[in-house]
Amino acid sequence: MITVNADGKIMVRRCLVTLRPFRIFVLGIGFFTLCFLMTSLGGQFSAKRLGDSPFTIRTEVMGALESRGALRKMSDMLEMLMKRMDILARLENSTDFHKGDEARFPLDRFQPAAGLMERIQAIAQNVSDIAIKVDQILRNSLMNGKVMDGRRDQCEVPRDPKYPDCAGKVEWMRARWTSDPCYAFFGVDGTECSFLIYLSEVEWFCPPLPWRNQTAALPSPGPLPRGQAAFRSDLTRLLELVGTGKESLIFMKKRIRHLAQQWLRAARRLEQKLKGRQRDQKHILIHIGFLTEESGDVFSPRVLKGGPLGEMVQWADILTALFLLGHSLRVTVSLKELQSNLGVPPGRGNCPLMIPLPFDLIYTDYHGLQQMKQHMGLSFKKYSCRVRVIDTFGTEPAYNHEEYATLRGYRTNWGYWNLQPTQFMTMFPHTPDNSFMGFVSEELNRTERQFIKSNKVSNMAVVYGKEASIWKGKEKFLAILNKYMEIHGTVYYETQRPPEVPAFVKNHGLLPQHEFQQLLRKAKLFIGFGFPYEGPAPLEAIANGCVFLQARFNPPHSSLNHEFFRGKPTSREVSSQHPYAEDFIGKPHVWTVDYNNSEEFEAAIKAIMRSQVDPYLPYEYTCEGMLERIHAYIQHQDFCGTPSPPAAKSPAMQSPRSPLALAPNATHLVWSPEAGWGGGGSTWPPTRSLQVWVSEGRHTCTETCQRRGLVCEPTFFRFLNKKEVFLQLSITCDSTEYEMNHLYPAVAENVHECYLQKEPLLFSCAGYNTKYRRLCPCRDYRKGQVALCRDCL
Prior knowledge:
alpha/beta, eight-stranded mixed sheet, 26 helices, 21 strands, globular, MGAT5_Glycosyltransferase, membrane, GT18_cat, glycoprotein
């Protein structure tokens, strides 16, 4: 046996103990060498990070093939280094070193350990060699890059009259291309050629470069074959799509579950009504912008504290309707999800989308609209025709047209989007210039209706208002009401009863929706104190057999005299807390009185207590009514097609003969049968429903049509915007001018001056001026469904 003295054992032990720290040292050298080289290359290398989505991968700048080669060579060398380190680790692990065997350590096991030092020295030398070789690669890469840059800088800005903005855009790119990383993502590297490639292939301001014909990106593939939409009979998948994590989403899912059976029955009825009609399945993105963290999401924290629920009620119903109609949905409530689904390139939002928009329609709100504009670049304008904006109070054309709103003082924080006004979709049908989206209220079956009628408490009133501030200053009304009725409230509070709520009021606190419904089913009266405006609760109360009592506003509230409406993109005058209930429902279900007149207020309470009222729900607020309406919009509203011809710029320009004819009673115009019923075959609503009336000086077109049992239809304005129409109505025109004005077409009768509309986006049912009498396009509507004409479905 060979023995080893103590010095030999100590040397071996120290060698082996120092192997692991030395391995770490060598790895450190390799790591810092890599970092130094990557930094030296100035960001010419790029890599895909594990876990990134396809929309966050950052590719290398075009023309950096040499840099990629350098990266590949360096990677190979580092891989060789790691393999050698693995051999070292295996050798170390194979050396059995036990404390109990120190006295009998064999010398043959010292031979490999001694050889390890030589291998470590070789690895260290390799690290040095790597630095030298990569330095050589880097020098060659930079020299070749200069040659390439020289070739690229030979590009000249083309002078093509078809691309008048090209030179200006190139100049802008020279000065600002580093302002957003998205330009580098698309290959811009500061050279003239990269500017022109980007401006011709990613954007469309410059003509394609001839030498790029073979290397230009392949054309986008055509759309995939579109499937047919089929009515769905299960909402489970929808509940998964809505997601979790926010109180607002939890509320919406509860509502969907609660109304599920009503929705499913309504879907079956509409399916039978359509009789198997073929419908294309749409790919739809629903982005609820007001629930994103970037917009503040002020709603979610207030769901359980008496905050407004109207928007969440409407969004829950929109989601359910679109899903049951059989369309493919994607739901987002965060900016990150929105960017991922749209294909937004990395950067600050100045570049177009990386891919063609994969959605036929996008339903969003004003917050979402702003987020899309900030992150879609030029693609926002390209695809804005696919957007539908859920807009509670409406957006009138005068506020929507950016140039006009700026010049005429209509600009607000919410308007100037230059969309078609019917792309905005409202909660109530108060703005015919917009589309009426609506929501649904719970329907009662026959048994429930009979139960409610027999269990009503004739002297029980519920106050509309969950926030204590609504009750402030209402002591006078409450004192009168308390003489006749027992008053109930649902005011939110945490520990102490709100001082604004009088002691004689029985306050239930904030109630869950089903408990609130039960309270309404007992009550005789649901009373509003002027706020909130136009919410869903009054319709729910009327549907549960209550009478709704509300205040008449004199003068009407508007952006001119009331803080709540200031800044909203509408000049609409609100005559009561709930104009829809006043105008479309009315007595005996709705009473609108002057609260400042105590006698009128008290008399209304007495009359309501004596009245017998059945539960009532307008058809347009049933599940079937909403499904019917959204189906019609999806099938017929197309804002991406060829726009209608612009209005003529001068009277000298010829216009086609008017397709209108004088009605038999000679009071208005109707569509002439000789012109055909289709209005060119693509008009929706069908032109057979059109009637043309002349307004009085103080009436809007909305009011003019409403007085005749009709609805103003802005789609038909283009048929009125002709000089011949004035002649057909026996209106004398000494002159005819074409101007941008949201009140035109109109006539100033005192001076016999006629005006036609120059800008189609400004056709508007809203607005009046005592100087003018307006030409108003009206149409009929289906009973209980004001959004659709009789032949619209």
